[in-house]
What does this fold into?
Amino acid sequence: MTDPVRAAAARLRGHLVATPVVGGAVLPGFALPAGARLKLECLQPGGTAMFRGYAHALLRSLGRFKGVVLHGDPRQIRAQACAAVAHRLPAVAVADAPLPESLAQLLHELGLEAVPGDPVEHAANRGFVVMPGCSDSDVLDGLATLGLELADELPLDTSRVLVAPSVLAAPVRRGLAAGGRDTPVAGVDRDPGVDFAALAGAVLDQLRVASDPEGLAALWAGCHSTDEGLAVVLSC
It folds into this structure.
């Protein structure tokens, strides 16, 4: 395939959760526009759309190394860990600061070690490679598959797509374009003045799925939007 986004979607087939698009009515406690749609990327492994990017990056490199060093912010480490385990790769998480309790628990459940230090140093000592960052082309192609799916799933009159974190905006826009859609995409980052922990708890109560506070900024922005044809990517 010449289109890298469609090629990434083909590689990822069978490795991703087919996350549903549902109407805003499933969240009666939230004042979303009547025509809102939610793409439940919080159902991906690790609870985040970031899994798409890291799973694709590993698929492109399988057999070239014996293990990976996980690093970055907690959301990235969570996605990297799930991708490594899905591909049966040995992995170790390296972080300078203590990890959030929920992430530390996930790593423990996955049988992965978390250590302090320098990722490059640990990779050299173990014969591993350091997981790529969000700007890596293979990671971006994987993330763009989210937009490619949305191109088929969203109503034609969708006026805008909100995604969080904002780093997802460019690849989602690219994926929509690959699917023949020019719907505007806005990236949203967390507002420190909002109690996202409470918002996450409300989502868990309503949808019966866990969602991390980091990824709910798009939902919060959607609650205060006047766009009737709004699509919100609910990811953490």
